[in-house]
Amino acid sequence: MTDRDVHLPVAAQPTIDSIADYARTAEDVGYDCAWLPETWGRDGVTVLSAMAERTETIDIGSSILNTYSRSPALLGQTAATLQELSDGRFRLGLGPSGPVVIENWHGVEFGNPLKRTRETVEIVREVLSGETVNYDGDDFELSGFRLRCDPPETTPPIEVTGMGPKAVELAGRFSDGWHGIMLTPEGMADRIEDIERGADLGDRDPDDVQVSAGVTCCALDDPEEARAITRQHIGFYIGGMGTFYRDALERQGYDEAPEIYDAWQEGDRERALELVDQNILDDLCAAGDPETVREQIERYEAVDGVDTIAVSFPRGADEEQIRQTMKAVAPEN
Asked: In this structure, are residues 326 and 28 in contact, taking their beta carbons and an 8 Å threshold?
């Protein structure tokens, strides 16, 4: 049986209290982990701290903290601290993000994201071990320091994102988990093959890598409203968030992905959203009335190798729509 996690809303929320309340709701209805994104709003660490203090049993995780805006050593310190604060419920989600955010918001050269992520994970592991860190990599060289506090009794898992075959293969080689997003069930199956190949190259058991399928969900009494909100979300990610999502869809056989991207970049949002047709929505998301959404999620649960369904929400969904969806697809249902 697959686990059921929830990715808290990526769009700006009114207050930290409102975000922590989402986490409490997720705990009450049986979700296994509440993941918090960090984009260009509130910093993730502060909000994760509030979530840790205001929940009791649900795991909390960062999905994602990027590997450019904090040093690997600081990420290790952060993971150790949040593991202590949460009484062992923290999961560290890392990823490179993309050049649009890293270069235009953080002002840092994007560089080689695969190498950056691999070296970051390796250093974080050394930091969390409590031993002196001596690391000689291409991007980072560290020597002579160790955690000044006790390392966590239970090391938090380090999970990564990645969309392309090579990124996912590397996740299979060195991570404790991989988060797949913007993938059809068939696309997830292809990427799981990459996980298995990477695990084999790393002389690991692929079952040691927790595979999470992120599914954008919107379950409302008005199915047309749910699909409209979700269509806008997909259009924005394909057209407005760099080329990663466009390329991921094109790899999965959606020849219209470059057209969606071009129309969005040219400012023709109406045309871009027209190109996000019903087939794309049905293949990539779970949007409609609650029963339909639950049935669509089952397609991902049926993929061999998927351990967790991670429910996320369209960026335009309001608080009531988020709560309605969260409860409609909760594990207890």
From this structure: no
Burial of 191 (0-12, 13-18, 19+ CB in 10 A): buried
Please state the pTM of the whole predicted model: 0.94
Q: Express each pLDDT in 49-94 by its tens digit.
A: 999 999 999 999 999 999 999 999 999 999 999 999 999 999 999 9
Domain chopping of the chain, boundaries:
3-218+286-328
Phi, psi of 135 (to 5 degrees): -135, 130
The torsion angles phi and psi of 210, rounded to 5 degrees, stand at -75, 120
Alpha-helical runs (H) found in the chain: 16-28, 44-54, 72-85, 99-104, 113-129, 165-174, 185-201, 223-240, 244-251, 257-265, 269-275, 278-284, 290-301, 319-328
For residue 159, give both structure tokens.
Answer: 């999970």
Beta bridge partners of 61: 35, 91
Cα Rg of the chain, angstroms:
19
In DSSP terms, 309 is beta-bridged to 4, 213
- For residue 64, cis peptide bond before it (omega within 30 degrees of 0): yes
pLDDT for the residue 57: 98
The dihedrals phi and psi of 12, each to the nearest 5 degrees, come to: -60, 135
Domain 3-218+286-328 has CATH 3.10.20.30: no
Record the tokens describing residue 156, joined without a space.
């938090």
By the 10 Å C-beta count (0-12 exposed, 13-18 middle, 19+ buried), 316 is classed as middle
Provide the 3-class DSSP secondary structure of residue 149: coil
Q: How far is residue 240's CA from residue 234's CA, in Å, rounded to a whole number?
A: 10
Q: What is the separation, in whole angstroms, between the first and last Cα of the chain?
A: 14
User: Under a CB-based contact definition with an 8 Å cutoff, are residues 19 and 6 in contact?
Assistant: no
Task: Answer whether 229's CB lies under 8 Å from 317's CB.
Answer: yes
Per residue in 241-275, pLDDT (tens digit) is 888 889 989 999 999 999 999 999 999 999 999 99
Sign of CA dihedral 190, 195, 198, 200: negative
